[in-house]
UniProtKB/TrEMBL annotation:
SMART domains: PP2C_SIG
Keywords: Hydrolase
Domain named PPM-type phosphatase: residues: 168-383
SUPFAM superfamilies: PP2C-like
Name of the protein in its database record: PP2C family protein-serine/threonine phosphatase
Pfam families associated with the record: SpoIIE
Enzyme nomenclature, EC number: 3.1.3.16
Keyword flag Calcium: no
One Gene Ontology MF term: protein serine/threonine phosphatase activity
InterPro entries associated with the record: Bact_Sigma-Reg, GAF-like_dom_sf, PPM-type-like_dom_sf, PPM-type_phosphatase-like_dom
Mitochondrion among keywords: no
Length: 395
């Protein structure tokens, strides 16, 4: 049924940005004979899926481990659920370029055949692309995502993010910020360009709006250098100079800049005073030791050196801020000494998009569900290197 996805695509292009759910519903009723549809979006913590058309409905769709919607969202595969009187609900992932937005539910009068499922999946892909584009034109989908009011600092941080996950060639990358609704200075950024993936993680200083403003200036300075063709060193140096001449050394930002050559499996890095970089390989978590240089903005005209290290196919990298690594709730030892490695090892069968949530949930459990004392960011990068020979990895 290729006409279904084509009809959805044409209709979504013509629809107002805030009416995508209603437009897709009308077309899928007509082309697939759907009894009803529902568009669910993941909240800021990825702890629940919530209906776009009734975002305040109290029952929502909780991400229970046994939930049908959860299986679809986690696996990124269609899931069929037969309900009473032979009706079938098809759950399709709403994702674009590896970023998971939510789930599209299509209720059909009977169990669908393979072409119908594929048509519904294509329609969900068109819906996800349209929602991503519409996000700048309407607040509707962002309102559905939030379960409580964001602080001003958090509003700025979430708007500054490139997304929460991305797939690029052999790389799957994901990140998560906590506390989701009040995060201040910690942040991550990334960009894909050919065989190159650039990732930066910032361990922001201070709290609240002041921290968010400092982070925004730092991220945009690095983006300015990167978009002008600047290397990692040039990105670090422009950001450092910008911060220094604004704050004269009174404020600085600990930052890790990474650039992965996806073809060769080589990572170039500038370690400007943390965050922490760890590698999961064969069930073992080890710290990737880099030469730690000065945080951005501490002194005028600071110059930075780049370092390199190779990856092996199947390697997973975690980058965590001090709010994760150094957390010491209730006078316990820091989370990063032992508990964090255990949580990272437990993710080895999960995709990166699930792994960041696992590490964050374990961090909250380590705090006995008390509020985090500091901002926390976790970024996870998987490199699969499919079809590459060992000689191509630079080892």
């Amino acid at each position: 049924m290729p006409e279904a996805s084509g009809s959805v695509s044409r209709a979504l292009r013509a629809a107002p940005p805030d009416q995508l759910a209603e437009t897709a519903d009308a077309v899928l009723r007509q082309t697939l004979g759907a009894a009803r549809t529902e568009v669910f979006v993941a909240d800021y913590r990825s702890s629940g899926l919530w209906p776009v058309r009734e975002p305040d409905r109290p029952d929502g769709v909780r991400l229970r481990s046994d939930g049908v919607a959860q299986r679809c969202f986690s696996s990124q595969q269609p899931v069929l659920d037969v309900v009473d009187e032979g009706r079938c609900r098809a759950y399709l992932p709403l994702s674009v370029w590896g970023e998971r937005l939510g789930v599209l539910m299509v209720e059909l009068p009977a169990a669908p055949d393979a072409p119908t499922v594929e048509a519904a999946r294509d329609a969900a892909g068109e819906m996800a692309m349209a929602m991503r584009a519409a996000d700048r034109e309407t607040d509707r989908y962002r309102r559905a995502r939030r379960r409580e009011r964001l602080s001003m600092a958090a509003e700025m941080q979430w708007d500054l993010l490139p997304g929460r996950s991305v797939r690029h060639g052999d790389v799957l990358l994901a990140g998560q910020l906590e506390p989701a609704y009040t995060v201040g200075g910690d942040h991550f950024d990334w960009s894909v360009d050919g065989d190159r993936l650039t990732v930066t993680v910032l361990n922001g200083t201070g709290s609240g709006l002041a921290a968010s403003l400092l982070t925004a200036m730092t991220v945009n300075a690095m983006r300015n250098a990167r978009r002008s063709g600047g290397s990692l060193v040039e990105q670090a140096e422009l950001a450092s100079d910008t911060i220094f001449y604004q704050h004269r050394g009174g404020r600085h930002v600990a930052t890790l800049l990474l650039e992965l050559d996806d073809r060769r499996g080589v990572v170039r890095a500038v370690d400007a005073g943390s965050p922490h970089l760890l590698r999961l390989r064969g069930g073992r978590v080890t710290r990737v030791t880099l030469e730690q240089q000065l945080p951005l903005g501490m002194f005028a005209e600071t110059r930075y050196d780049v370092q390199e290290f190779p990856l092996e196919p199947g390697d997973r990298l975690f980058v965590v801020s001090d709010g994760v690594y150094a957390a010491e709730p209730g006078e316990q030892e820091p989370y990063g000494l032992r508990a964090m490695a255990r949580s990272m090892r437990s993710t080895r069968l999960q995709p990166a998009t699930e792994a960041v949530g696992t590490v964050m949930r374990e961090l909250h459990a380590y705090h006995a569900d008390a509020d985090l004392r500091d901002d926390a960011v976790v970024v996870c990068l998987d490199w699969q290197a499919s079809g590459r020979s060992g000689d191509d990895t630079g080892q």
